[in-house]
Structures are given as structure tokens and as C-alpha cells.
Write a structure and sequence with these properties.
Helices cover 38% and strands 13% of the residues. Helix 1 crosses helix 3 (56-68). The chain has three helices and two strands; from the N terminus they run βαααβ. The chain has a two-stranded antiparallel sheet. The longest helix is centred in the C-terminal third of the chain and has 13 residues, at 56-68. The chain is of the alpha+beta class. It is globular, with a radius of gyration of 12 Å.
């Protein structure tokens, strides 16, 4: 399972919401980004799936979109 990490700007002491205005992102991606920004305790697909009716495949596709534009990073958990 992957760990989802928000890409944060170390120069900001507040949550950086500029990604929500990124017009390259779909509304689904903006929604997931907003959710992850306000719920920092959600950092795995397993935890994310407990909060939504969205499928794992759809969550992964949205996460890939966020990763493509530099808003999150996915880290493989060592097993």
C-alpha cells in the first residue's frame, strides 16, 4: 500500500491551498486535494477508502493526476 504525502511549501506556515486553483486539475482532483489538506491524518489508500464510496481504482487515478502536477507524492511502504 502506498503512503500519500502532500507536497508542502516550507516557506508557508499555513496550509498552502494554491493547488485548489490549479486549472489543470479536474474537480475530482481538487476535491481530493482539499480533503487531504484538511485531514493530514489520512495518508494511506486504506484510510482514504474508509471515508468515501469511491473505488480504489478511481482514488488511484485521481492521486495520479495530483502527482502528475506536483501536488502529492506517493511513497511505497516497505513490506
Amino acid at each position: 500500500m502506498s503512503t500519500i504525502r502532500i507536497v508542502r511549501n516550507p516557506q508557508h506556515d499555513r496550509t498552502d491551498t494554491r493547488g485548489l486553483n490549479d486549472t489543470r486539475l479536474s474537480w475530482s482532483a481538487r476535491g481530493l486535494l482539499a480533503f487531504l489538506l484538511i485531514h493530514p491524518e489520512i495518508h494511506t489508500y486504506k484510510a482514504l477508502l474508509q471515508t468515501t464510496a469511491t473505488s480504489l481504482e478511481e482514488c488511484q487515478a485521481i492521486a495520479q493526476e495530483l502527482m502528475r502536477y506536483g501536488h502529492i507524492m506517493l511513497e511505497e511502504d516497505p513490506t
